[in-house]
Amino acid sequence: MTISFRGGVHPNDCKGYSAGKAIETAPVPAKVIIPTRQHIGAPCSPVVKVGDLVKKGQVIAETQAFVSSPIHASISGKVVEIADYPHPVFGSCMAIVIESDGNDEWVDGLPLQRDWKAIEPADLKDIIRQAGMVGMGGATFPTHVKMSPPPEKKINTFILNAAECEPYLTADHRVLLEMPEAVVAGCLITMKVLGVTKGVIGIEENKPDAIVVLQKATAGTGIEVVPLKTKYPQGAEKTLIRVITGQEVPSGGLPMDVGVVVQNVGTVVAIANAVEQGIPLIERVTTVTGGAVAEPKNLRLRIGTTFGQAIAMCGGFKETPVKIIMGGPMMGMAQRTMDVPIIKGTSGILCLTAAEADIGPERPCIRCGRCVEACPMGLIPSMLSILGERNEFQVAKEEYDLLDCVECGSCVYTCPAKRNIVHYVKLLKAQNAAMAAKK
Amino acid sequence: MSAESKLEIGTLAVSTSPHIRCDESIAKIMWTVNAVLVPAALFSIYQFGLPALRTLVICIAVSMATEYFIQKWQNKPITVNDGSAFLTGLLLAMNIPANIPWYIPVVGSVAAIGIAKHTMGGLGYNIFNPALIGRAFLLASWPIAMTTWPTPAGWANKVDAVTAATPLGILKLQGYEELVKFFGDKTDMYMSLFLGTRGGSAGETSAVLLLLGGLYLIYRKYINWQIPVCMIGTVGIITWAFGGNGGLFTGDPLLNILSGGLILGAFFMATDMVTIPITIKGQIIFAVGAGALTSLIRLIGGYPEGVCYAILLMNCVTPLIDRLVRPVKFGARR
């Protein structure tokens, strides 16, 4: 029996494009564009200059701030430019451009061999911080910060988020199938750092092959594999915790408030690589897919590869895309150019055709209530969109729980009037933040 | 741009997530509701002949024309094709006597679309159900014409008069026993009400065709089953308890459920998304309230029928219900 949560929607998962494609390692790009900001928190400052020679795995940007994460060279070569470049999340951002020397040489001492069981939790956490680990599902919150709850918050459960509920994306699915040992090692390392014995892997039942593989790989480790109903947003942190532990993260709170830490599949694999081999986060598995892509694939790409390069590795376009998205179709970010680089949080590059991205004109709300039914957070999304049209962020915040919205997009997906509710929510939140900053 | 990029800057659409939508639309919902009303509308033509067809055409055409001209005049996008003005016209025609003079439905349609819908801002903003406002407007303006019902064909051998009373009218003025006698016996009465071979507004008579249409809308999830069940159930219970002459629980709930415009109102007008509460809990309150008001008007009010006013009165309190009845917020235990 699988368990579920209130609300949610059932979009066509469209995972068939790439679910059966084994991960391919992309060739080393001739040039990478590495933004100095690939995480939530303080941006890094470059510690290299134009003209410097760098090696793969070398730190090229960092900061002393706690909520931050260092950035490493993903190829060996020469720093040719440090300047503002298009960024998939922030619009534009300072980036370090490295031209490959063709050798793809590791920085001295890497990779190494280590047994994580012999390392103390505090040292493990330090390794994870040094390796530039962030949440690779897209939120890019620094992992070591998540692993450092204040002492009054007792963590009792670690959950691996293997739901991958976004349509089209299959990167996590392939990683689970092809690297189950690294997934389990990453989970065990995280559990050791957190000091918990209870580990759960939550996975949607539309990946039965991965469920079997994980059940085998976790045998004897004490980690439980929990199949979840296929329903969006099953993998949203709060709904995932609700389904697995029965507890609701309080309004305005964090998972640690109910004793839970959640990590993404890509992140735990990167943690395992960092701890066991000393390899920092310089590459990741990304799904390049959508109806416009000639040959959708799951690619292992170096950070700093451009979207255009990645799409070219998939045979380019078979149809002109009208939208290129970083991430999935429900929460991903539309891009204005293919020159943006892959960053640590790029789970997918989705190229939608005109037919796939057909949205239709926005109409007035007819109060049908489908959004209320779909909202996993128990809000009234239709009112948020109407208040958004009138810039009433105060009312939205105080009477309609604006700040509880997780922007999962279920309401917009289901709306017959095609209202851009999430757009208005983001607008209201920005107005609210601007007002708070003024005070 | 890099060599791999074949796209010109500015060709990519940029918008907020999500980037995909389900395949529902306002037009799809409205035209589906229109479609499920067609059998009952056709039955009214079979029952009442060409006058019924004429009234249907007038209401639908004038409603759509009114919407078109208002939107044109206000320089708004023309949305006549979305089926909502068509639905208002169709429902209005089904809510008035079939053989009414032609200018009355013209005025009713203009009132429904022009006053009830577009003075409020158009689709989605109206407080009251437009078709019911149209009907109420006509009932206030032409009370006699609006309560003079034609004889249905099936009744020709039973009644000589050109105009026929409605079952609820007979119940109100002459009493229950006379009504049963009028139909022959109780079984005949229920069958006649269920099939629709009785007097009444054009489209309200055939309970069975309206029920089938309503059930399809529930199956398609365009309406919530709680609304018709609660409204009809409330009318059944109250009229059963207080509707009889022999004391408590001697009324005839089945008669009350099948007669008048209750089935039409409960499935097609108390479910009008725009004018009812947005949460299911709120909709249940709305439906129970509309059922109670309907019963109140029928039992002790001046009119024999009360569905129209009951729904309009509950439309008034919809914003209040929406303020008070909220979904349970996730993680509300702060």
Mind sketching the topology for me?
The complex is a heterodimer of chains A (439) and B (334).
Chain A: E1 24-25, E2 31-35, E3 45-46, E4 53-54, E5 59-62, E6 71-72, E7 77-87, E8 91-100, H1 121-130, H2 143-146, E9 157-162, H3 171-178, H4 180-194, E10 198-204, H5 208-218, E11 223-228, H6 237-245, E12 260-264, H7 265-277, E13 283-289, E14 297-302, H8 307-312, E15 323-326, E16 333-335, E17 348-352, H9 370-374, H10 381-389, H11 393-399, H12 410-414, H13 421-438
Parallel strand pairs in A: 1-14, 9-10, 9-12, 10-11, 13-17
Antiparallel strand pairs in A: 2-8, 3-5, 4-7, 5-6, 7-8, 13-14, 15-16, 15-17
Chain B: H1 26-48, H2 50-73, H3 84-94, H4 103-118, H5 130-141, H6 143-146, E1 149-150, E2 163-164, H7 167-173, H8 176-183, H9 186-195, H10 207-219, H11 226-242, H12 253-258, H13 262-268, H14 280-300, H15 307-324
Antiparallel strand pairs in B: 1-2
**Strand numbers in spatial order across the main sheet of chain A:** 1-14-13-17-15-16
3D shape of chain A: globular
Query: Would you tell me the structural class of the helices and strands of chain A?
Result: alpha/beta
The helix fraction of chain A, in percent, is 25-40%
Write the CATH fold name of the domain at 115-277 in chain A.
Rossmann fold
List keywords for this structure.
heterodimer; A: 439 residues; alpha/beta; Rossmann fold; 6-stranded mixed beta sheet; 4-stranded antiparallel beta sheet; 13 helices; globular; B: 334 residues; mainly alpha; two-stranded antiparallel ribbon; 15 helices; 2 strands
Textual characterization of the structure:
The complex is a heterodimer of chains A (439) and B (334). Chain A is an alpha/beta fold and 439 residues long. In chain A, 27% of the residues lie in helices and 20% in strands. In chain A, strands 1-14-13-17-15-16 form a six-stranded mixed beta sheet. In chain A, strands 2-8-7-4 form a four-stranded antiparallel beta sheet, with no helix packed on it. A four-stranded parallel beta sheet of chain A has the order 11-10-9-12, sandwiched between helices. The longest helix of chain A has 18 residues, at 421-438. Helix content of chain B is 59%, strand content 1%. The longest helix of chain B is centred in the N-terminal third of the chain and has 24 residues, at 50-73. Chain B is built from 15 helices and two strands. Chain B starts with 25 loop residues before the first helix and ends in a 10-residue tail after the last helix. A two-stranded antiparallel sheet of chain B has the order 1-2. Chain B has helices spanning 26-48, 50-73, 84-94, 103-118, 130-141, 143-146, 167-173, 176-183, 186-195, 207-219, 226-242, 253-258, 262-268, 280-300, 307-324; strands at 149-150, 163-164. Chain B has 334 residues and is mainly alpha-helical. At the A-B interface, helix 8, strand 15, strand 16, helix 9 and helix 12 of A face helix 1 of B.
